[in-house]
Amino acid sequence: MARKPQTPSPRSDAAAAAKPSRKRSGRTQVSGSKPAETKSAPALTPVIGLGASAGGLQALTDFFEAMPDKAGMAFVVIHHVDPNHKSLMADLLSKHTKMAVELAADCTPVKPDHVYIIPPKEFLWIENGVLRLMEPPEPRGMRLPIDFFLRSLAEDQKQSAVAVILSGTGSDGTAGLRNIKENGGMVLVQEPKESAHDGMPRSAIATGSVDHVLPVAEMHAVISNYVAHPYIKQGASTKTMGENARGALSRIITVLKAHTPINFECYKEGTLLRRIERRMALRHLENLADYLALLKDSPEEAEKLCADLLISVTAFFRDREVFEYLAEHVIRDLVVDCAPGKPIRIWVPACATGEEAYSLAMLMIEKIEALRKDVKLQVFASDVDEHALSIARAGVYPDSIVGDVSPERLNRFFEQEDHSYRVKPELREAVVFAHQNILADAPFSKLDLISCRNLLIYLNQQAQERVIQMFHFALNEGGLLFLGSSETANNHEVYFKPVSKKHRLYKRVGGGLHRNFDFPITTNPVFGPTTPALRSAEASRGLRLAELSNKLLVDRYAPAAVLIDARMETLFVQGPADQYLKVPTGEASQDLLDMARDGLRAKLGSTIRRAFKTDQDVTASGTVTRAGHNVPVSIAAYPMVVDGIKLVLVTFADTPVIKASIDSEEGPKDSALHTQFEQELEATRLELQNTIREYELSTEELKASNEEAMSMNEEFQSTNEELETSKEELQSLNEELTTVNTELQQKVEDERHLTDDLNNLLSSSGIATLFLDRDLKIMRFTPATRQLFNVIANDVGRPFSDITGKIDDPKLLEDAVTVLQDLTPSELEVRADGDKWFIRRILPYRTQDGKIDGVVITFSEVTDLKALQQAYEGALQFAEAIIGTVREPMLVLDENLNVVKASHSFLRAFETTPEDTEGKALFALQGRQLDQPTLRKLLERILPEETTVEGHEVVVDIKGKGARTMLVNARQMKDGTGGRDFILMVLEDATERLEIQHRLEEREARLRAVLNAAPEAIITIDDQGIVTSYSPAAETILGYTAAEVIGQNVKMLMPEPHQHQHDDYIARYKATGEKKVIGIGREMNARRKDGTEVPIRLTVAEWWIDGERNFTGILHDLSEDMKRRDALQRAQKMEAVGQLTGGLAHDFNNLLTVIIGNLELLEMNLGDFPKKDLLQEALEASDLGAKLTAQLLAFSRKQTLESETVPLNDLVRSVQPLLKRTLGDDISVETDLADDLKLTLTDPGQIENAILNLAINARDAMPNGGTLTIETKNVTLDVDYAATQVDVEPGDYVALSVTDTGTGMKPEVMARAFEPFFTTKGVGAGSGLGLSMIYGFAKQSGGHVAIYSEEGVGTTVTLYLPPADKGAAAVADPGESAIPKSRNETILVVEDDPRVRRLTVTRLEDLGYETLAAENGPAALEIIRGNDGIDLVLSDVVMPGGLNGFQVADQALAINPALKILLATGYASGGAAAVGAAQNRHPLLRKPYSLRDLAKALRELLE
């Protein structure tokens, strides 16, 4: 029967409890509130809800790749996402569709062609087309976000909602899709065989609420057609149905009658039309005639329409508040008021899949236990849908019920299985499920409570009336009726009175005086659909009788009328009948004569009896007393027959009275009265005559009736005697039934124990067992079956062909059919995933009466037996292969050394026969060549002493082969049965092998010499990674001896992670041939014996010997190479930074040239200016800047070194006082100067700076004081040392070392010490350029710098400087002289910087020179060509215009060879400028230069 759950809002019950007021992202959300900013989405935007879990990403990408980009729909993806991780689903899906993909935000209106993704840590729901977010009740565990969203989608979108269930485990979405189906939406599920995980699809299919099961690629077409149907666009069934909907509806119901016993005429027309139109939308039909034709041709569609009309949807504890009220007020009273030992009887009609029946049973059991009463519970649950009843009887529900059932009740009444819950026996036995059509079958009786929720709303008025009367009949006095929230019994006060209008609870009132009702309901051709067949004279009444009466009365001008049956009981009253009838006092009666007013009864009775008797219309006149006056009345009776039942319609009408004229001319008043009395007297006389005749007839009838009554009395007495006898028989039968019932209960108990034993046996056996019926549908399976097939409890009843498995058995169903046909058991070995083997047996399923009712399939694991079998077969084949391939001669000897058996190889090798060999003495064979004392002695000791002979060498002369060296091997062969022992003797011809072995030994000796001499480590391994050889160089590099390594896995020489991955490397190469090292080589680290790592270059070669793969690895120690590589990288880094600093120095020198020159000019021109000391400070600051640029150039190795022949010892002694003042008293300065120290060619100023820098670094490293030692000596750097360094030439050097006793450096700090800007000092304590500049100065000087440091010991920095040529002498420092002036010479100034150019011209003019100026090389050359009076060209080196200073000088000399050239530069880098500077082709003046330096350089060139 139809039923509908009380669908909760997504915000009700548990969800509402989980949604408190909270603040999120600057917005406040309160339970039940709706923010003002919420906007509704477009009304006609269908929303598609997609649910997925494990394996769902692939399904979702396939779905959106197939879905058009302009589908006009909104898509909401609900997937299971870890709340602690960011969701990447939006990014992943955006790659597969052009639609906008975004994470859903709170208060987001859905838009067409958009995809919304549920964010982590949130529940998503929809209200008025707007997406809303809320925090889930639990952050983890059973959250069921898909169910939550689909419930809201169903409520919000109604028939426009579409749910899609894709791959996933568990059952999330199963409960929500029922709500989609109930509200008229469409449900699609991915084909389970296509999905990566079929748990969710299969759970959804098991509900029976799925419209389409499709591959993902086909879903887009079905959805597009559905949303384009008028059912979605218009939303009103009657519009689409057209004007002929009613007629077509009748024809559709007629078609359905051929497929179901349910009479859908009792349903409301709107419900029928909505469900029919939904089916039309699913079938993509818009014409009702086409759908009617489809129904006639497709039984499947008719069954689906019937299933849709039944609306089989329910839930546990729906309307939680109502059930709480029941538990506290209703059920408690029922238990309290129930007498001990008596049952409480409850009926749940239209129970669907049983959730509500189980809910009531749980409440009752809990209350009975709480009150500790001895009360039996009987819950009857009925429904017309057999599929829904099968689910209810099984009592298996998806794990989504955790949202409806509390954890305590789940633990108390359910057992968890896979992703489902099974009702425990205690609860299951309390509920009896029965197939029942509530409109056609008899009800249960003597009930205390009926729960029928949301059934009546689907029935028409007459069906509701009959169901209410049925409930009244079925309930005990005071019994309770529980209806749905949209239903009421308020219009039936005569049957029920409200107990709680809010919760729709009513109590039965009135005894058994109410009129009976008729079942089943059938179609009557006269009264139309849903009119019952009349059972007796009490039949046609109610609305249909009113229609008949109205028709007849209209034909007769509608007088007051009453319709009665043959017993004269009133069936229907029409018009002002109260003027002729009244309600009698006393017990209520429907007898018309009892209701007749005074004066009317006699005439009324005779008229009715005459109409029944004659079956003709009868009229009569009578009088009725009203207000004390007699009123003449006309009575008419119209007999009729309806469905074989005689009825009479009685009408009443007042007879008009013709008043006599009072005119005196017409006669006296007495005459008129006299005439009236005569008329009344005549009427009375006629009525009396009729009464006498009727009395006489009645007397005769009474006599006949009396005789009949006497006869019937005798029959009753006889019947009474028979009934007494039957009573005794019934009592006896009742006792027998009681005994049988007791025995039956005992058998049921025995069966239960037997079933428990069987279940435990099957579960404990570990054997996967399947029970299939004759249609190969699943009847039962053991838990072990789940390991081989993807079955769940809900799969019972499903075709086994729908189930996917993990076993390779394609002929399973074919063999099952064969067993059913031939009744011959089948057995086969099959293989499952994980390389497991099973014996699959199929046997007929035989019932106790010998009937074949299906098959039993068992899978017994034989993996171990299979392995043993394979091992045995392998060993046998191996032994046979050995015997067949061994070519050595073999003999079996007894204890007397006589030959028992000779192998074919022996007979063939020695060209003899078994007759000449077997049974003979060994030493008598082959001319007694084997009779050698040593061999005899060895063989004779084998059996007594259980010894063996291994490789004893004998020489035998074989015919045709000459002398052959044979190796004799012999051992005892024990007889396990206790018999004789034998000797197995093998003769191996080793002549060629010994020769080869000799040659191999010579070759191995040569190879060993090569290995011992090779500097690289050479290691060989087999294909398992076991070391087979290990060279001496390997011992040196790795520290292991050969004895420690050979026979071990080579991975012991590898650090992590290579050590654990090495075996996988070899296995992958052997499997795929992919080379990563072999023939390619790689650099890596090897592990020394002491645990340290050494860098190596590994080269591996593969080679084969005797069919076995081997590898040779050559390890080159990269320790020194790595040092050179690091030094090269450091030099390259310093070179790069040097390029940068050199460029900065060039620009800075130009600026300093301008500053210093102008300051000098100011100083010369100001005379005795009072603030002249300020100029001096500015000049000193500029000099400091010049020194800084000099340091930068030193660091970049681009400075102009003023190389001199310097005695380092003298220079050290000269700076020693400065060092003592700089370092302080707590640091002592010591020197160790070589007496024979060579002179060095270097810049003394840079040497002083280097010593000072190193001293300051040493001071910082000795915060608590210490010793600074400066040492000089002559050294020679050999070739080996130079090879480990970068840009170092071997040869003689002068070494200057500075050593401190400070904290020392860590290795990683020492490796970076020369890097520019690297410092370990605090902010402001050092620039990180000191050591870098020393490094640059040393390299520019053609020398080298080295550093050595130990933590806690100190640091030594050594400069290696090239020695001066022999015979060179130290240069004295000249004194300062006056600034030389001009002697009327002319100088051409070439400078691109205008400020430097102006300054230079001003300086020259102050010195008395005539000047010309040019801004670039081409302009200068033009001036030179046009002026022969130029004496000197002063040019910048780096200039724009295409010519640098050296190029200008060369071309100027070509024009005028007498010219003098002086070049000025701040930094010469790149191209011809750098080449010219390196070649010293022209004198260079380094910027910034002073006026004295300029004047001096000019005079030196001009003079």
TrEMBL record:
Gene3D superfamilies: 1.10.287.130, 3.40.50.2300, Histidine kinase-like ATPase, C-terminal domain, Methylesterase CheB, C-terminal domain, PAS domain, Vaccinia Virus protein VP39
Coiled-coil features, chain-numbered ranges: 674-754
UniProt GO MF annotations: ATP binding; phosphorelay response regulator activity; phosphorelay sensor kinase activity; protein-glutamate methylesterase activity; S-adenosylmethionine-dependent methyltransferase activity
Cross-referenced InterPro entries: Bact_Chemotaxis_MeTrfase, CheB_C, CheR_C, CheR_MeTrfase, CheR_N, CheY-like_superfamily, HATPase_C_sf, HATPase_dom
4-aspartylphosphate modification, residue list: 1436
Any one Gene Ontology cellular component term annotated for this protein: cytoplasm
Active site as annotated: 53, 80, 172
Start and end residues of each Response regulatory domain: 1386-1502
Matches recorded under Pfam families: CheB_methylest (PF01339), CheR (PF01739), CheR_N (PF03705), HATPase_c (PF02518), HisKA (PF00512), PAS (PF00989), PAS_10 (PF13596), PAS_4 (PF08448)
Name of the molecule in the record: Sensor protein FixL
